[in-house]
Amino acid sequence: MEAVHDVHAAVVDAAGRLVARTGDADLVTFWRSAAKPFQALPLVEDGAADRFSFTSEELALVCASHSSEPGQVARVRELLGKIGCSERDLVCGPHPPLSERVAQDYATRGLRLTAVYSNCSGKHAGMLALARHHGWPTQFYTRPEHPVQQRCLREVARWTDVAAADIRTATDGCGVVCFGIPLRAMALAYARLANAEVGTRNAEQSVEGPYTKEADVRFRVPPSAFRVVEAMLRHPELLAGDGRPCTEMMRAHPGRVIVKVGAEGVYCAVLPRDGLGVAIKVADGHAVASALAMAAVLEQLGLRPRPVSLAARPMVNTRGETVGELRVNGGLEQQKDGGPRTGEE
Hints:
single chain, alpha+beta, three-stranded antiparallel beta sheet, 19% strand
C-alpha cells in the first residue's frame, strides 16, 4: 500500500433523506463544475433558451466539462453566433484539453488554443446568453456582483435548500463563482432532478438536517429542469467526451444515470429511475480516484457492471510494465441512524 485517498459520499433520495453514505456526508466543499446543470437552469427558466432557439446539444454543452473535441468547439462557436457574441466575449482562459488524446493531437498539430477550447466554454456561452436575454451587460459577467452570477447563486440555493447567504463562494478555475456547500445538499439537488425526468410535479419533501427551516417543504420541479435533464441524458458524448469517465459511465447505462465531474475530486450523479442523487469528494482531490469511486458507488446502487476502464487503474512504469494498481476499497453504508463512517480508496 503506497497511497490512500479518503472518499466522502452522500446518497440522497428525492424526498431529501440520506439513504447511504461513507465518510462525512455533511462535508462542506466546493461544487466546482458539478454545479453546471444548476447554472444552466436559469437559461430555460427565464426564457433565454427559447429566445435563442437552443438545441438539446447546446444545452448539454452549457452543462458540460467538454474535452475540447473539434465538434464540441464548433458547437460552442455556433452558440456564440446565435446570441450575437463572439469568442472575444468569453472570459474563461484556455487550457490543454481534458482528454489526453485530444491534447496530444492538438500539440502535435501545433494548434493555438483559445478561450473557446476551455472545457467551460459552453457554460460561459450560456451565461452570456442569459445576460443578453435580460439586457444585462456582457462585460464582467463573471464577477460575483454581476446579475448573472447572482441569478445562478439563487438557483443553487433553491435546489440545495442552502440559503444564499450561507453558501460559501470563491472563484472557480474558469473565473466564475463556485459554491461551497455540504455534500448532502449537492446530492439533494441532483435527487430532485430525478423528478424532472417525468415532467414537472410537486414533491412532498420531508428533509432532515440543516437544509430546511421547516419539517415539511414543498419543492416544485420547474419545467426548465426537464429540458436540461433530457439534454444531458441524450448527449453523454457532449457532457465530457470520448473516453472520459462521465461519458463512459453514462454510455454503460443509457438513460439510467447522469454523471457530472467537478474539479478536485468532486463527482455528482442522478439516477432518474431510482430517484437518487449522489455526491462524492475525494479528500485530496485525486481525479482518477474520484472517477473510480463514483463508478464503484453507482455499481453498489445497482448500475452493474461498471465500465472496465473504471474497475481499477493499472500503474505502469517507464518500461510499460504493470507494477501495481489503484482500486476501490470499502463501500457505502446504508443509512439508518445517521452515524458517520469513513471510506477509503
